Amino acid sequence: MKQVVLNVDGMSCKHCKAAVEKSLQNLAGVKKASVNLSAKTVKISYETGKVTLDDFEKAITDAGYEVVK
Ligand SMILES: [Cu+2]
User: Fold this and answer.
1) Separation of 54 CA from ligand 1 center, angstroms?
2) Distance from Cα 43 to the centre of ligand 1, integer Å
3) What pTM was estimated for this model as a whole?
């Protein structure tokens, strides 16, 4: 199990937090996604080999938010 923290732009309330977490947790291989609203980050626990950073970015973008690099 690996962990990564991504910076996400556009999250402003509990709805955003839930939307981002849900979009990530719907991906196969993601065990847990946890948003910190004040830090504008999401911490993702996932299985390597099943899912990639690109998948995280796509899921977040599709949910209407932006990964900041
Ligand atoms: Cu919101």
Assistant:
1) 23
2) 18
3) 0.95
